[in-house]
Amino acid sequence: MNEPKTNALGTARVSILIKKFQKPLILAAFVIVLTIIAPHSFPTSRNISNVLWSVSTIGIMSCGSIFVILLGGIDLSVGSVMAFSGALAVTIIRSSNYSTGGALIGIAAALITGMIVGAFHGALITKFGVPAFLITFATQIILSGASQLLLGNKILSCLQPELFTAIGMKKIFGFPLPIYLMLLAALISWFVLNKTQFGRNIYAVGGNSTAADLSGINNTGITMSAYVISGFTAAAGGIVLASMTQQAIANAGLGYETEVITAIVIGGASLMGGEGNITGAIFGAVLVGLLNNGLNLLNVPATVHPFAKGIVIIVAVATDTMGRQGRKHKFTGAFKNLFSKRSAT
User: Fold this and answer.
1) Prediction pTM value
2) Contact between residue 226 and residue 122 where contact means Cβ atoms under 8 Å apart
């Protein structure tokens, strides 16, 4: 008599575990499939290191952009901020005759520029009601042109000083420094979102800005801060990329805004705001990296890559939406049952 109940309980526990460890299981499945498809080239420490190295800039930028996404906003300028910041840092380093002091000044100037751009976005969005999509898209175009002017339509190399090149090339325990920088950015972002009042306010404003405002939360300050953080990590990504490639290119950040948003959305964040976490964003970045790596190992033409990524985004969003609707229906059903019981009494 108890066997059906026991089986049902076991099935429920398995279902809960699968949902809890859904993202690690998906990554494991990707790794297993790619290992089977390319047993001699994929499951090597060098290849795995290259995958993580290639997505480190996306991961770093996602750690800041997720603050904006959690508010229900968007920052389409991160790619252009990335390119301009890298170009600015390299230009200052070259003008200082590749000195260590010049590298420090260049890095600081790039980071400050990213924060200024973010503050500009936040001010126009909060003070003047300009849609985030519109203003960040406009800034994307402006900074793209500014990068061209700054570099004079040239590719500027930057092979020194070591302080700068080490950011993208130095290895620790066999893994490049950008991977550790991505993990550090993720740890800081996780702590801020989960362990501070500011992080709780981010979720509150993104979930219901009106209710957050009525509860005394400074919506304007929270929004401003989120865009400043997004600008800062975009600039940091630009510095890391410039150090990786040891050069500055005006269109270096082309398409990175799509990669960042893709990583965050695949990680389970809602573009409507209020839902998502940095763990999911890093998962999304790594998944995109594995997808790119797998397509390259299979010699799939580059023209097909956007199509494959688009399919992954659609599946991820659809799965997340269905899961969210399922939770909503369960909550609604429970509420109705509770209400009917009270009515009956």
Assistant:
1) 0.86
2) yes
